[in-house]
Amino acid sequence: MRLCMISLDAVSHTDADRLLRLPVLSALREKGVFCDQVRTVYPTITYPIHASLITGCYPESHGIGHNQPFQPDTPKALRKWYWEHGQIQKKTLHQAAREQGMSAASILWPVTGKSKYIQKNFPEVLPLPGESAVVKMLQYASPLWLLHMELLYGKQRKSIRQPDLDEYAALLSEKLYASRRPPDLFTLHLVDCDSMRHWHGVDSPEAQSAMERLDRHVGQVIRAIEKAGLINDTIICIVSDHGQKDAPCGVLLDTHLKAACGARAQTLGMGAYIFGDDLKKAEETLIAHQKEWKIARILKDQDLRALRAPRDVKLAVEAEDGCCFIDEAEETFGEHGFSLNEPQAKTLLWLCGPGVKKGVQLKGANLVDIAPTLAKLLGLSLPDAEGKVLTDALL
User: What are 317's strand-pairing partners?
Assistant: First the structure.
């Protein structure tokens, strides 16, 4: 049994009707199980969610609570991200697969850098100013495989920006399945739509075109699996992490909070974590400036524990609709990091293949249910998973 898991970044429940009119994703719905009511995890940002997708755990357990460690005094452009697989504190599907002797490959999946469990790895790693993109990638990826791919296909990559990077990722995915040893477990993260929505807005023509490209890339990978003669032995799992909302109003919350009381804010986009030595004073300051700073809601420790938020976060805020929290003056368009009560926090799941029912629409699921369900189908062990197996989806 094999697994191909593809993440469509920044599409959600609110995009389901459009996506299901596209040829590949609409056909997948009929071949297996579909759900457009998957409750994602808090915070609604990419890296914590992708760690949950491959562990079945919430951020309070797997330890990835943000895209980046808290670096309040480091300029935004120089901040490190959670790039390394070893930073995840729970067993992942990649690790479980290797323990059972399966081969694993991954392209642009967050928090997979330097993984000893992924033999062919092109992780999502960003060069910081002054760093060489090539050297950085070779440090975090599978260097020999990546160099081989670069020699063969690198000239076909127009740039490392979207949508060019997704085009290259889809090409590498196709070549993985055309190789002599296709992976038993493969994870692919497609980022095109997230980029277009951040840059141009949620319902922009650019974002609409990105959805069509997502459908095409999923189809490209599935056709490669079919061409390799592996489709009857492969579970296809398509997931999403969060949607986006337009947020043209940006508030310099960290700047204001630091000046007012010395506390600091780590932005999530349409939310923020609050850190400081005196959180009671920070809370009082937030209340006093709530309207001015466009704060819709203040989340206290009990609220965050109920959300299974990172353990070190004791205070947080949510922005008013149409607003987001920023670290420096910049033009803003689409954003996420919003409440789990938003429609865009309901994400998507397509699941088909051996052991999966056909033509079934699930009424609901939790995002942390996906990894234990896949582990069950593959015969893998994820003993720490906090989600449950989606038995209604399985034969």
Answer: 272, 298
Contacts of 80 (CB under 8 A, 6+ apart): 68, 69, 71, 128
SS (H, E, C) 214-250: HHHHHHHHHHHHHHCCCHHHEEEEEEECCCCEECCEE
Which whole-number Å values give the CA distances from 242 to 15, 43, 46, 54, 192, in the listed order?
A: 11, 10, 8, 16, 14
Q: Is 46 helix (H, G, I), strand (E, B) or coil?
A: helix
282, 296 in Cβ contact below 8 A?
no
The Cα 393–Cα 250 span in angstroms is: 42
Cα 291 from Cα 298, distance rounded (Å): 12
Q: DSSP 3-state assignment of 107?
A: strand
Instruction: For the full predicted model, state whether its pTM sits above 0.85.
Output: yes
Q: Are 43 and 60 in contact (CB under 8 A)?
A: no
pLDDT digits (tens, 9 = 90+) for 308-366: 999 999 999 999 999 999 998 888 899 999 999 999 999 999 999 999 999 999 999 99
The pair of structure tokens assigned to 29 is 């719905």
pLDDT in tens, 82-122: 999 999 999 999 999 999 999 999 999 999 999 999 999 99
Structure tokens given for 355: 């052991």
Closest alpha carbon to 245 in 271, 272, 274, 209 = 271
Contacts of 111 (CB under 8 A, 6+ apart): 47, 50, 51, 64, 82, 83, 84, 85, 87, 88
Kind of pairing between the strands at 323-325 and 249-251: parallel
Residues 6+ apart with CB under 8 A from 168: 153, 156, 157
Instruction: Write the single-letter amino acid at 213.
Output: R
In whole angstroms, what is the distance from residue 269 CA to residue 317 CA?
11
Distances (CA, A) of 286 to 255, 274, 323: 13, 10, 16
Q: Shortest CA distance to 395 belongs to which of 350, 358, 351?
A: 358
